[in-house]
Amino acid sequence: AMQIFQQLHMEAMMPNNVTFVNVILACANQADEKEGKHVHMRAIACNLEENVVIGTALVDLYGKCGNVEEARRLFNSLAERDSFSWNAMITAYVTCDVVEPALDCLNLMQQEGVCPNDVTLICILKACRIIGDVDKGQEMHAQIETKGLSEKNLFISSALVDMYVKCGLIAIARKVHSDLPVRNVVTWSILIAGYVQQGKGHAALNSYEKMRSEGILPDAITFTCILKACG
Q1: Is the distance from CB of 222 to CB of 185 less than 8 angstroms?
Q2: What DSSP state is assigned to residue 49?
Q3: Fewer CB within 10 A of the terminal residue: the chain, N end or C end?
Q4: Are 13 and 23 in contact (CB under 8 A)?
Q5: What is the C-alpha to C-alpha distance for residues 122 and 160, in angstroms, rounded to an integer?
Q6: Distances in Å between the alpha carbon of 139 and those of 144, 198, 211?
Q7: Distance CA 39, CA 88 (A)
């Protein structure tokens, strides 16, 4: 993608919004801040830095590269912010383990009338997991239940189980897990890891057997957890 972008430049063609967004995404996926800065400079030269779509892509880029200060600067410079830009900023904070500002972003986002979506909720649950903020996590859980999202989105359900596991509330994690309409190797592995973390080796082995009885094949993470349980 970067080679084609350079070729476009050599042929004196003007990149448009779609070009910039995709090239920035390519840099973000590689966490290549050096190339990303070159593309950023080109966007500035084309007076497109403050475009909400390109600006959001740049926030995502710098967040994935660990440069949360530049991500925040670009986010603050956006003339308008939608759910995508808010999610990009929240994700940048969580990726860099700067958690309190991520939680502040949720409040500011709602104050501006932007509703959190699935991506927002998953990021905030990760933030709660990192700092062990059970109260905020349970508040988000209540919102998720009100919207019926735990039954519709396996990623949100997995994040909920993970949050409770990391906060040491294994009984609640087990309840959330057992209520899932669909379970996969990820949700089972998260629960098994929680039991191992709490020193409940027999419970971890029992969960492993239940997972297999549901026809779900273990992966490398599951096996690592089970070996720890045996130990």
Answers
A1: yes
A2: T
A3: C
A4: no
A5: 8
A6: 9, 24, 29
A7: 18
Q: Is the pTM of this model over 0.90?
A: no
- Tens of pLDDT, residue by residue, the chain (231 residues): 888 888 888 888 888 889 999 999 999 999 999 999 999 998 898 888 778 999 999 999 999 999 999 999 999 999 889 999 999 999 999 999 888 999 999 999 999 999 888 899 999 999 999 999 999 999 999 988 888 777 778 889 889 999 999 898 999 999 999 988 889 999 999 999 999 988 999 999 999 999 999 999 999 999 999 999 999
What distance in Å separates the CA atoms of residue 129 and residue 72, rounded to the nearest whole number?
A: 22
The residue with tokens 């448009």 is 16
Residues in the chain: 231
CB burial of residue 64 (10 Å; 0-12, 13-18, 19+):
buried
* Type of residue numbered 59: V
